[in-house]
TrEMBL record:
Residues 18-58 form the F-box domain. Pfam families: F-box, FBA_3. InterPro entries: F-box-assoc_dom_typ3 (IPR013187), F-box-assoc_interact_dom (IPR017451), F-box-like_dom_sf (IPR036047), F-box_dom (IPR001810), SCF_F-box_component (IPR050796). NCBIfam families: F_box_assoc_1. The lineage of its organism: Eukaryota, Viridiplantae, Streptophyta, Embryophyta, Tracheophyta. SUPFAM superfamilies: F-box domain. This is F-box domain-containing protein.
Length: 411
């Protein structure tokens, strides 16, 4: 790969015979922690490592990884390459969670645990629950930067639906489902809200067909496909038995039918296979059916492509995802078994698990109260980009004056 063009610096390189292009090519091959430190060598190297072109090239070179929060809330982050499950390339990211005290954005005490909720474009989404309510945080684990997002309606039940990149504007946005004011916000009507991190503003999209209740399922996963988000565990999807899709450009919602006979299966999961929306569903812990939506515009065009005989180690498989890059054609899928903490690469042609790793050890007889690691299907790759929204004020939504909010949270 050709190194990105870097503007020349007047400061001499410590190794004067090495050109900027060669330095950039070397830095592209280093782990992110080393790249961040190299800026202390000289101004020329700092100019290279902090340029937008270098950051973009670096992100393209980094492997896609599965990322989990080890042993529950506030845990260290564990990553492993998605396509290979190479244990020699596993990493442990000791994330510096915001310290106790008051958040400068919401004004609330930092009391609750931080739960990993999603990943997008090198950023991680966390949810923090406390006596005062629920807040959401976005973090770059490479640069250790954090920003808190104020809730759309401070005193109303809210579910975060996801963090996504808005293609036309390049903005990073949060989508919320929040109850309206009627009946004290306890669940007779609700609305979707979009919050732009770059603009620091929240907009109401319109009424939603489902509301949030005290015991509504936490929305932990979605499938992003061609600028559209798809859920199985959004309250509207749960109530209707459909897939709920959100077009991030037109900001419209659509209900899509699931494959037939889904009532005989366990909890399904969405994935992309051969460039198409697909669904994996476990049947009685013995088999997994893989369905493909042949025509995205026709949600009656589901076709079953594979029936997998699950090995005993994966009888409680919770999800499947394409193990190739960005859903390209692949004969290998990644299976995640939450109960055992195991991951497996399954070859659809050979009909067998070709690689299995024990990512974590959950509760055992010796450690019955060891916090469980949730193997959610979050895909991550390193980013060196220092987004401006980590430094700007995340303003209170214009339709509500939140008594807790003050200034920005720049931690």
């Amino acid at each position: 790969m050709t190194a990105p063009a870097i503007q020349s610096s007047t400061a001499p390189s410590p190794l004067g015979l090495i050109s900027d292009d060669v330095v950039a090519e070397i830095l592209l091959r280093l782990p992110p922690a080393y790249v961040l430190r190299c800026g202390a060598v000289c101004r020329a190297w700092r100019a290279i490592s902090t340029s937008p072109g270098f950051a973009a090239a670096y992100a393209r070179r980094r492997p896609l990884e599965l990322i989990v929060q080890r042993h529950g809330f506030n845990g260290v982050l564990d990553t492993i390459p998605l396509a290979t499950l190479d244990e020699g390339s596993r990493r442990c990211i000791d994330l510096a969670y915001p310290e106790r005290g008051k958040c400068k954005t919401t004004g609330r005490p930092l009391e609750g645990p931080f739960r990993l909720m999603g990943s997008c474009d090198g950023l991680l989404l966390f949810e923090e629950d406390s006596y005062y309510g629920t807040d959401h945080w976005v973090c770059n684990p490479v640069t250790q930067q954090w920003t808190a997002s104020v809730p759309p309606r401070s005193a109303r039940l809210t579910r975060i639906c996801g963090l996504y990149l808005h293609g036309p504007s390049g903005e990073h946005r949060l989508l919320f489902l929040t109850n309206d004011d009627d009946c004290g916000g306890m669940g007779t009507s609700a609305s979707h809200y979009v919050r732009s991190l770059e603009a620091g503003e929240t907009r109401r999209l319109g009424p939603a067909a489902a509301t949030v209740h005290m015991f509504s399922q936490i929305i932990t996963e979605h499938l992003e496909y061609h600028g559209k988000l798809h859920w199985l565990d959004h309250p509207e999807a749960m109530e209707t038995g459909k897939i709920l899709a959100f077009d991030t450009v037109s900001e419209t919602f659509r209900r899509m039918s699931r494959p037939p006979s889904m009532n005989r299966h366990g909890k399904p999961s969405l994935l992309e296979m051969d460039g198409k929306v697909s669904m994996a569903a476990v049947l009685k812990g013995l088999h997994m059916d893989l369905w493909v939506l042949e025509d995205y515009g026709d949600d009656e065009s589901w076709a079953r492509r594979h029936r997998i005989d699950l090995p005993p180690a994966f009888s409680r498989t919770r999800w499947a995802m394409n193990a190739s890059v960005l859903g390209r054609s692949s004969n290998v899928i990644l299976l995640g078994d939450n109960a055992s903490g195991s991951l497996g690469l399954y070859d659809l042609v050979e009909n067998r698990v070709v690689k299995q790793v024990q990512l974590v050890t959950n509760a055992t007889r010796e450690k019955p109260f060891w916090p469980c690691t949730q193997l959610n299907a979050h895909v991550f790759n390193d980013s060196l980009e220092r987004h401006a929204f980590f430094d700007i004020i995340q303003n209170t939504p214009p339709d509500e004056e939140c008594p807790w909010c003050s200034s920005s949270c720049n931690m």
